[in-house]
C-alpha cells in the first residue's frame, strides 16, 4: 500500500514537470514571436523593404513673389547592416571618394546606440547624406557590388540670393536631442536650425511617405507589396511667402558693408517686416550641404560675430530715439503739455553738481522743438518732474507707472516676432534700483534713462516697432517676417492690433516734433534725400565706451505711412552721420522702387565706408 502511494506521487511530479516544461517553451516562443523586436525586424526585413519617401520641403518667396529658397535633388547612401556581405571596403570607399578611416568612423557612429537611438541591424541606416547627382553617379554604377546598400533620393536647399542669411536660417542633420523630442525624424533627416527654417519647420517639412517593397529569399526587390495598396505618398511641405522685399534687403546689406549694426523696416499698417539686416552677414549657402560644419566653425571664430542676428538679438542703448517714448509718457501722465517749457537748457541738464550735456540750440523750448533739436535738458527735466510728481507717493511708485508705459509701447519684453532667438532688451524697475542704489534713490540718481542711456537697452526691432506705433498713432501689430503660409492662416498674434494706453492726441504732438526734426532739426538732410515726401524722423547718438553709436528712427509718408525704419550703426558717431542717410536711402528705395541718381551715388559712398574703432578695423 505504501509503495502504491509513492508511485502515485511520482506520477503527479512527472505530470507537473512536463506541464512546466511545455509552459516555458510556449512562453519563450511567445516572447520571441510577439515581444522581441529583433526577431520581428528580422522577419519583416527578410520579406519587406520599407522605403521612406521624403517630401519636397516648402519653397520660400519674397513679398513680390520672387523665389528665394527652393529644393534641389540630392541623394543619401543608406544600408541595412544585416544584409552587408563580403564588402570590398577599398572599392566602396573609392566609389564614394572617402578614406577607409572615414568609413570606419562612420560605421562606429552608426552602431553607437547612444548616438543612434533605436539602432537595429535589420532596419535601414543612413551612411552618407546630401550627395549631388554627379557624386552619386560613380557609386550607382558599382551599386551591384555592394549588397545591402542603396541610394535614396532626397533634396537640399538652394538659394537664389546671397542675402538674408539671418532671417532665412538653414537646415542641417537632426541632433540626438531633436530625435528624442519629435518621432517624425530618423537619423540623417534634415531639420531647420535657425531663422524661418526653424520657426516654420512643421509647415516646411511636409509629411513623409512609405513604399512597401516585396523581397525574395535573396533580398531582391520583386515589386510593391499588394501592388502598392498600402503605400502612402509623401506630402510636400507648405510654401511660405515672406513680407521681406529682397531688393530692399540687398540694399540694406550693401549699405552696411564694413559696419556693425542693424536695419529693420516695418510696414506700419500690418506689422510686416520689409527688411531685416544684421551686419556683418554671410552668404546663406555657406551653411548648406556637407561643408556646413566647417563653415560654421570659421564663422563662429570671427570676432565680429557674423552669426549673431543683431536685429533681434543685439541689445543697445536706444539713445535719443527713446525721447519719443518719453514724450508720450510725460504727456499721458500730464507731467507736461505740448506748450510746457522746462527751464533753460544750459548746454544740458544742470542740477547742483550734476550735469548731462547737450549741444547748442535755442532755449527754453516747448515739446515739439525739443524733439526737433533733441534737447537732452528738456527730457531730463521731464523725467525728474515725473519721478517727483505729487500724483505718486514716492519715486518707486512713479517709476513703476513709467515702466508700464514703456512696456506698453513694446520695450522691456520680447515682442513675439516669428524668428527664434529674439531678446527682450531691458527696462529697469524700482526693485532693480533699490537693489543697486539702496532705498533713497530719486530722479537725479537715474537721470540718464531720460535720454535712452544708462540701463535702458532695446533691440533694433523694438526701435523700429516704436516708429511703426507712432506712425499708426497708438497701435502696432506684432512684427513678423512671414506674410502667408500656403493654405494656412497666420497665427492671430500677427493680425491682431495691440493698442497702447496713450491717447491718440499725444501721438499727433510727437509726430509734429518728428516732422519738425526733418524740416529744420537733426534730420534735415532727409529733405535732400526724399524731396516731396513728408518724412518724420528722430536721430539718436548713443554713448558708448568707444565712439558713439549712430541711430535713426523714422517713418514716411507722415499721414499715410508705408514704412517705418530703425537704423543702428555701432561706433558710427552722430545719428545724422550714418543713421539718417541710410534710413533715407532705404525709404527712397521702398517708396519709389529705385534710387534717384543722387541717392545711388550717396549709397555707393556709404557702402565704401568702413567704421574704425578701438585698435582694429571691424
CATH topology of the largest domain: Beta-lactamase
Class of the largest domain in CATH? Alpha Beta
Strand content: 15-25%
What average pLDDT do the residues reach?
Answer: 88
Quantity of strands, as a count: 22
Model regions low in confidence, pLDDT < 50 over at least 5 residues: none
State the fourth-level CATH superfamily of the largest domain.
DD-peptidase/beta-lactamase superfamily
Number of domains: 2
Global Rg:
33 Å
Structure description:
This protein has 618 residues and is α+β, with helices and mostly antiparallel strands. The protein folds into two domains: 190 residues, Penicillin-binding protein 2a (Domain 2), CATH 3.90.1310.10; 341 residues, DD-peptidase/beta-lactamase superfamily (Beta-lactamase, 3-Layer(aba) Sandwich), CATH 3.40.710.10. It contains 22 helices and 22 strands. The strands form seven sheets. Strands 2, 3, 4, 5, 10 and 16 form a six-stranded mixed β-sheet that branches. Helix 10 runs antiparallel to helix 21 and helix 14 crosses helix 19. The longest helix is centred in the first third of the chain and has 34 residues. The N and C termini lie far apart (109 Å).
Amino acid at each position: 500500500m505504501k509503495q502504491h502511494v509513492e508511485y502515485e506521487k511520482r506520477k503527479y511530479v512527472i505530470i507537473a514537470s512536463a506541464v512546466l516544461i511545455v509552459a516555458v517553451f510556449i512562453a519563450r516562443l511567445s516572447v520571441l514571436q510577439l515581444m522581441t523586436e529583433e526577431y520581428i525586424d528580422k522577419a519583416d526585413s527578410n520579406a519587406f523593404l520599407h522605403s521612406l519617401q521624403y517630401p519636397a520641403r516648402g519653397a520660400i518667396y519674397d513679398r513680390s513673389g520672387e523665389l528665394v529658397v527652393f529644393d534641389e535633388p540630392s541623394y543619401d547612401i543608406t544600408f541595412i547592416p544585416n544584409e552587408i556581405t563580403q564588402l570590398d571596403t577599398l572599392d566602396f570607399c573609392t566609389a564614394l571618394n572617402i578614406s577607409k578611416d572615414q568609413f570606419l568612423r562612420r560605421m562606429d557612429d552608426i552602431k553607437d546606440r547612444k548616438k543612434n537611438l533605436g539602432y537595429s541591424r535589420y532596419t535601414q541606416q543612413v551612411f552618407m547624406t546630401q550627395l549631388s547627382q554627379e557624386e552619386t553617379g560613380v557609386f550607382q554604377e558599382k551599386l551591384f557590388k555592394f549588397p545591402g546598400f542603396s541610394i535614396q533620393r532626397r533634396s537640399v536647399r538652394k538659394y537664389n540670393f546671397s542675402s538674408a542669411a539671418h532671417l532665412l536660417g538653414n537646415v542641417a542633420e537632426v541632433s540626438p536631442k531633436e530625435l528624442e523630442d519629435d518621432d517624425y525624424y530618423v537619423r540623417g533627416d534634415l531639420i531647420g536650425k535657425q531663422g524661418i527654417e526653424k520657426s516654420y519647420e512643421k509647415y516646411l517639412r511636409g509629411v513623409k511617405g512609405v513604399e512597401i517593397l516585396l523581397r525574395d529569399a535573396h533580398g531582391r526587390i520583386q515589386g510593391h507589396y499588394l501592388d502598392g495598396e498600402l503605400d502612402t505618398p509623401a506630402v510636400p511641405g507648405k510654401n511660405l511667402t515672406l513680407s521681406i522685399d529682397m531688393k530692399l534687403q540687398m540694399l540694406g546689406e550693401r549699405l552696411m558693408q564694413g559696419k556693425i549694426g542693424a536695419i529693420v523696416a516695418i510696414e506700419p499698417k500690418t506689422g510686416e517686416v520689409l527688411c531685416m539686416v544684421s551686419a556683418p552677414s554671410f552668404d546663406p549657402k555657406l551653411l548648406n550641404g556637407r561643408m556646413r560644419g566647417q563653415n560654421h566653425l570659421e564663422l563662429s571664430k570671427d570676432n565680429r560675430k557674423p552669426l549673431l542676428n543683431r536685429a533681434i538679438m543685439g541689445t543697445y542703448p536706444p539713445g535719443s530715439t527713446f525721447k519719443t517714448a518719453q514724450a508720450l509718457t510725460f504727456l499721458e501722465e500730464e507731467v507736461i503739455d505740448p506748450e510746457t517749457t522746462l527751464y533753460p537748457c544750459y548746454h544740458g541738464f544742470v542740477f547742483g553738481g550734476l550735469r548731462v550735456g547737450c549741444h547748442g540750440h535755442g532755449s527754453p523750448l516747448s515739446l515739439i522743438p525739443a524733439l526737433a533739436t533733441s534737447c537732452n535738458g528738456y527730457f531730463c527735466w521731464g523725467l525728474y518732474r515725473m519721478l517727483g510728481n505729487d500724483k505718486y507717493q514716492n519715486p518707486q511708485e512713479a517709476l513703476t507707472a513709467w515702466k508700464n508705459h514703456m512696456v506698453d509701447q513694446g520695450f522691456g519684453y520680447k515682442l513675439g516676432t516669428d524668428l527664434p532667438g529674439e531678446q527682450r532688451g531691458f527696462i529697469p524697475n524700482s526693485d532693480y534700483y533699490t537693489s543697486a542704489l539702496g532705498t533713497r534713490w530719486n530722479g537725479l540718481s537715474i537721470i540718464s534713462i531720460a535720454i535712452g542711456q544708462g540701463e535702458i537697452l532695446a533691440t533694433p526691432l523694438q526701435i523700429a516697432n516704436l516708429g511703426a506705433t507712432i506712425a499708426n498713432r497708438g497701435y502696432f501689430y506684432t512684427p513678423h517676417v512671414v506674410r502667408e503660409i500656403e493654405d494656412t492662416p497666420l497665427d492671430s498674434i500677427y493680425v491682431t492690433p495691440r493698442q497702447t494706453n496713450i491717447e491718440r492726441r499725444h501721438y499727433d504732438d510727437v509726430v509734429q516734433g518728428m516732422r519738425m526734426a526733418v524740416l529744420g532739426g537733426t534730420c534735415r538732410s532727409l529733405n535732400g534725400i526724399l524731396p516731396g515726401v513728408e518724412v518724420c524722423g528722430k536721430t539718436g547718438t548713443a554713448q558708448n565706451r568707444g565712439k558713439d553709436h549712430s541711430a535713426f528712427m523714422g517713418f514716411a509718408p507722415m499721414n499715410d505711412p508705408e514704412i517705418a525704419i530703425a537704423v543702428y550703426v555701432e561706433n558710427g558717431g552722430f545719428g545724422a552721420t550714418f543713421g539718417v542717410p541710410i534710413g533715407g536711402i532705404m525709404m527712397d528705395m521702398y517708396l519709389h522702387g529705385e534710387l534717384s541718381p543722387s541717392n545711388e551715388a550717396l549709397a555707393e559712398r556709404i557702402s565704401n565706408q568702413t567704421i574704425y574703432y578701438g585698435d582694429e578695423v571691424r
